[in-house]
């Protein structure tokens, strides 16, 4: 019982095995699903905040419905703002046969103001080789900046948009993929100004808000923005600041979308890779001076609509 008389739940003890020096842990012995007890759900959340990305093997019992139902235990699922839902109410399908190859560093959906706080990704079909995903710790990247660079980052704001140069973020891309990006992913153009350094509402950490949705830095030319972006982004994606996961069918990864970037490695040729993702509704970033992110386009953002 807490001091105010409300019931508190002691987190369960999990079998947690670190898989990276600065982020990443595998949790064994947990069968994910909507019927998990409250103590285990709290322990999963605590592990997520501590390790930034957590992995679960052998979750082949999950289907689309139970993945969504499990997600509801961790927060409020929200559909992608532009990509139509194929299965369930909120699931985003990432199918390599349909252009689902996000081989560039990003944090999910930062082109909106209250971007997702977490993402839950399930491997439906895994290639025999390749197709790993890599995550980077944006809190640790900030912590390791030199003092002068920290001070600069603290003062910067960046414009994020879904109307970015899709082809420029990828080595080889088909005309069909470019057209799909334009007509589906960027069907409604979003632009949001975020502080480059936000305060994590759950941990109090300062994290860098960057990734491929950044178009420019507020008050800087395109050329200077590119230099600033490379300078800061390079700190995020240093190999020492990353963890890499080799997928097997039935694996689930959950990451703190307010403290990470990720990159799906496109090295599996014409093999099939199918993933399904649920994102959890987030909060509007707040800078170290208390300023909130600003919506530029659309002026009134349409709320994500779940499929009927």
Automatic annotation (TrEMBL):
<dbReference type="GO" id="GO:0046872">
    <property type="term" value="F:metal ion binding"/>
</dbReference>
<keyword id="KW-0223">Dioxygenase</keyword>
<keyword id="KW-0560">Oxidoreductase</keyword>
<dbReference type="InterPro" id="IPR051323">
    <property type="entry name" value="AtsK-like"/>
</dbReference>
<keyword id="KW-0408">Iron</keyword>
<dbReference type="GO" id="GO:0016706">
    <property type="term" value="F:2-oxoglutarate-dependent dioxygenase activity"/>
</dbReference>
<dbReference type="GO" id="GO:0005737">
    <property type="term" value="C:cytoplasm"/>
</dbReference>
<dbReference type="Pfam" id="PF02668">
    <property type="entry name" value="TauD"/>
</dbReference>
<dbReference type="InterPro" id="IPR003819">
    <property type="entry name" value="TauD/TfdA-like"/>
</dbReference>
<comment type="similarity">
    <text>Belongs to the TfdA dioxygenase family.</text>
</comment>
<feature type="domain" description="TauD/TfdA-like">
    <location>
        <begin position="17"/>
        <end position="279"/>
    </location>
</feature>
<dbReference type="InterPro" id="IPR042098">
    <property type="entry name" value="TauD-like_sf"/>
</dbReference>
<keyword id="KW-0479">Metal-binding</keyword>
<protein>
    <submittedName>
        <fullName>Taurine dioxygenase</fullName>
    </submittedName>
</protein>
């Amino acid at each position: 019982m807490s001091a105010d008389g409300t019931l508190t739940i002691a987190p369960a003890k999990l079998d947690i095995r670190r898989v990276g020096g600065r982020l990443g842990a595998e949790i064994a012995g947990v069968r994910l699903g909507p019927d998990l007890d409250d103590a285990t759900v709290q322990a999963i959340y605590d592990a997520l905040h501590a390790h930034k990305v957590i992995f679960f093997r052998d979750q082949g019992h999950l289907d689309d419905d139970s993945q969504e139902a499990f997600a509801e235990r961790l927060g409020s699922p929200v559909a992608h703002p532009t990509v139509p839902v194929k299965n369930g109410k909120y699931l985003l399908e990432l199918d390599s046969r349909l252009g689902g190859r996000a081989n560039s560093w990003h944090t999910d959906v930062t082109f909106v103001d209250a971007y997702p706080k977490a993402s839950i990704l399930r491997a439906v079909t895994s290639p025999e080789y390749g197709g790993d995903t890599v995550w980077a710790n944006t809190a640790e990247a900030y912590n390791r900046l030199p003092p002068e660079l920290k001070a600069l980052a603290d003062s910067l704001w960046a414009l994020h948009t879904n109307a970015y140069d899709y082809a420029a973020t990828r080595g080889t891309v088909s005309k069909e993929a470019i057209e799909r990006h334009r007509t589906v992913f960027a069907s409604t153009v979003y632009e949001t100004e975020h502080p480059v350094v936000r305060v994590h509402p759950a941990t109090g950490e300062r994290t860098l808000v960057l990734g491929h949705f950044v178009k420019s830095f507020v008050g800087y030319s395109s050329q200077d923005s590119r230099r600033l972006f490379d300078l800061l982004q390079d700190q995020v994606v240093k190999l020492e600041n990353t963890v890499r996961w080799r997928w097997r069918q039935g694996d689930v990864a959950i990451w703190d979308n307010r403290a990470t970037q990720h990159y799906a490695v496109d090295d599996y040729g014409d093999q099939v890779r199918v993933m399904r993702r649920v994102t959890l509704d987030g909060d509007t970033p707040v800078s170290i001076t208390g300023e909130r992110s600003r919506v530029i386009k659309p002026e009134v953002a349409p709320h994500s609509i779940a499929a009927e």
